[in-house]
Amino acid sequence: MLMVPFGLLQVAMCFMPYTFLVTPLDWTFSYGAFAIGILYVLGGTLILTMRRWAAAFAIAVLVVGMLVALSERNVALLTTAAKISFDVFAPMFAIARGYVVLIALAVYLGIRWRQFR
After folding, report:
1. Looking at residue 114, what DSSP letter applies?
2. Rounded CA gap, 55 and 52, in Å?
3. Domain span holding position 8
4. What is the reported pTM?
5. Radius of gyration of the chain, Cα coordinates, nearest whole angstrom
6. How many structural domains does the chain have?
7. First and final CA of the chain: distance in angstroms?
8. What is the Cα–Cα distance from 32 to 115, expressed in whole angstroms?
9. Dihedral sign for Cα atoms in the order 14, 15, 19, 20
10. DSSP code string of 17-64
11. Euclidean distance between CA atoms 51 and 33, whole angstroms
């Protein structure tokens, strides 16, 4: 499942000092993103059991991940990008792409719901 590598990438991103080379990460968001990344890895691993409770857990983790992504970190990122270069398309496109991936994974799990025991 894609949740495992995405979770590992999110954990790795937590230790980078800058996101998109625009704004420094706050430690609060770094710890939150680390926790969400670990939950992605756990949810993706549990999906392999093909149990409904594992699929429900994974969908819940994806929803929480979207709520965390809607936090003020993204707003701060876009605001800082606008102040520096007036080019907010690249960061906005990256954030939107992340949302699309989260939504696609949740929809995929929902479509395959009947295959889980």
Report:
1. G
2. 5
3. 3-115
4. 0.69
5. 15
6. 1
7. 17
8. 32
9. negative
10. SEETTTEEPPHHHHHHHHHHHHHHHHHHHHHTTT-HHHHHHHHHHHHH
11. 26
- Tell which residue, 13, 105, 100, has the closest CA to residue 58: 105
Give the helix/strand (H/E) hosting 79. Answer: helix 72-85
Q: Give the model confidence (pLDDT) of 51-110 as tens digits.
A: 999 889 988 988 888 887 776 566 666 666 656 665 666 666 777 787 888 888 888 888
Phi first, then psi: give them for residue 110, nearest 5 degrees: -65, -40
Give the position of tokens 């996101």.
Answer: 19
CA distances from 4 to 15, 36, 99, 101, 111 (A): 18, 12, 17, 13, 19
Element (H, E) at 2: none
Amino acid in position 81:
A
Q: Smallest Cα–Cα separation from 93: which of 81, 105, 104, 84?
A: 81
In 3-state terms, what secondary structure has residue 68? helix
